[in-house]
């Protein structure tokens, strides 16, 4: 099978790769756990998603997958030069190192876990920790529509994918109007709307 295969459920980090595949207009096949005989361990020894198999190139780590796909297929989402690529990497690493795990903790302890298993203190602590990075992102967007260039790039997609958890966790974003407007622009992208509807 030479078509791009994307392993993982939509409601997981796999959403990032699916969103990008739609943005790029790729012909892909989503493969999920309920498929008979499918074992994620065959594409990722950690058994985690997303993973992809692109004509024999088997890759895991959501952000590495997205950087690979965007550089392979090019277009407006891809970096146009080394400086853009550096800024894209800066924001992508920032999102996964400074925001992701705290956002996930808040999401689990406010929404995803069964009520009796939620830890409200942990959630509140996470919301407190997020204030600084949310402020940094809000300031970065004070005089621009998009993070890196005057167009929507993979930096916006990668960072918005992480920030969507903050929104889903119902963190109050009232103090961050630039961030809120930018996240709204990102989440209104037809490619994402299509994935979330499916
Ligand atoms: N750093 C990895 C994290 C992957 C990850 O933890 N994925 C979750 C789903 S969002 C998973 O597969 N969890 C199942 C497990 O931990 O066994 C990435 O960005 O791809």
Overall description:
By secondary structure, the chain is of the alpha+beta class. The protein has 2 domains: 4-73, 3-Layer(aba) Sandwich (Glutaredoxin), CATH 3.40.30.10; 82-189, Glutathione S-transferase Yfyf (Class Pi), Chain A, domain 2, CATH 1.20.1050.10. It has helices at 14-23, 62-73, 82-112, 120-140, 154-168, 177-187, 190-197, and strands spanning 4-7, 28-31, 51-54, 57-60. It has a 4-stranded mixed β-sheet, with helices on one face. α1 (14-23) packs parallel to α2, α1 packs across α7 and α3 (82-112) packs parallel to α5. 37% of the residues are buried. The model has no long low-confidence stretch (mean pLDDT 96). Bound molecules: glutathione. The site of glutathione (GSH) has 8 residues, from loops.
Query: Which stretches are poorly predicted, pLDDT < 50 over at least 5 residues?
Result: none
Small molecules in complex: glutathione
CATH topology of the largest domain: Glutathione S-transferase Yfyf (Class Pi), Chain A, domain 2
CATH architecture of the largest domain: Up-down Bundle
From the structure above, extract its key features.
binds glutathione, alpha+beta, Glutaredoxin, globular, Glutathione S-transferase Yfyf (Class Pi), Chain A, domain 2, 7 helices, 198 residues, 2 domains
